[in-house]
Amino acid sequence: MNDPTSIRPPRPFRLRAVLPDLCLLAAMPLLVYSVHRVFIDTPNEQTMGTAFKIFFFHVPMGWLCMLMALVAGVAAGVQLRRRSRLAGCVALAAAEVGFVTGLGVLLTGPIWGRATWGTPWTGDARQVTTALLWLVIVAYLLLRHYGPRTSDRLAAALAIFGAVNVPIIYYAVKLWKTLHPSTGVVGSLPPEMWATFWPGLGALILCSLGLFGLRVRQLVIAEELDAAWVQLDERSQST
Prior knowledge:
By secondary structure, the protein is mainly alpha-helical.
């Protein structure tokens, strides 16, 4: 029979432990509602027709990619300066979510560009800088997952460079006068499209934050397991 004193007391309830799950649960009905609004309730744009509906997915994913790049860059800087394992986990998780959202941007952008300009790629400044950001994220992930331990500084430098690139992407239209729509296009939407844009943005934000939180939790647990195995190995060697 087990000794009652050896049984650990239950951990206190913490909201942050279930917050990623709550985000994903809230995202599911909102995502279904937003997709219904995009394809059923929202009228087609006069010039681009049905292809304009991809705007409601393209723009939020672009914003989320830039947000995750900023988070990864700041966390990588903290990791580099303080040798923080938690910051390293946050940077890696943010980069992974940024990889997915950035891939969504690069896949949906050419569809929109084909309907707008007649070509999927014009090589304008915003397209190039966005593609550059995604490639930087890919390089960072390759170094973090497959690079040696000595590549931490290079990986952090890549993440910081990606974060620096974010404001360049945002102001690219104003700086170089490209064909890409300006940053104020969201504010100029008619009411029926405005009412469709925000539920979709909220659903993608909740989904991204939920996946980000779950991934951080996984990485922290993996780091703790690695540290425990190292301590166990050191104890076995000392005895």
